[in-house]
Design goal:
By secondary structure, this protein is mainly alpha-helical. It has eight helices and three strands; from the N terminus they run H-H-H-E-H-H-E-E-H-H-H.
């Protein structure tokens, strides 16, 4: 028996160390934990922070578009947007063109928060300390996986 055949025969598909999903999950959890002290200074959770990043970039979006960009469903997004509105960072209103659409707009106070948040990415990069080439490769691979997952979700009717 060849070495490769023996390895395949002994491969345990339910062994944690054989799972791609586990290091992705654990890494995401640790990165969010590393963000916490910096986001606490801004009184934001990680999910609120990435929502504000989308709003800073686009200024005004339909709720549906915010959800698509963040891979969040409306049951997660609705209370999140409500909290950001209560903090004064965004406003929500019905679209004049189609009242089924809820439009989210970043406020002046929300834009002022952006200035306070500018240092966060650099602080986190210092915590992770990953070579730029490796970070770029990882970024590309993760977005490739996300794209394939999104395509598979659309094919399966999600």
């Amino acid at each position: 028996m060849k070495k490769e055949e023996n390895m395949e025969k002994n491969f345990d598909p339910l062994k944690l160390e054989n799972q791609l999903c586990f290091p992705l999950y654990a890494c995401a959890k640790e990165i969010v934990k590393a963000y916490k002290p910096y986001l606490d200074e801004l009184d934001l959770t990680y999910t609120q922070y990435i929502t504000m990043m989308v709003m800073w970039e686009h200024r005004e979006l339909r709720v549906k578009d915010v959800g698509e960009r963040l891979y969040l469903d409306s049951s997660t997004l609705t209370p999140l947007l409500k909290r950001l509105e209560e903090k004064g960072y965004i406003s929500r209103r019905r679209s004049e063109k189609d009242e089924r659409d809820l439009i989210v707009t970043v406020t002046d106070e929300g834009m002022a928060l952006r200035e306070r948040a500018l240092s966060v990415p650099g602080k986190l990069a210092a915590c992770v300390d990953l070579e730029q080439e490796k970070a770029a490769a990882l970024y590309g691979i993760l977005y490739e996986v996300l794209g394939k997952m999104r395509q598979d979700g659309k094919r399966s009717g999600e």
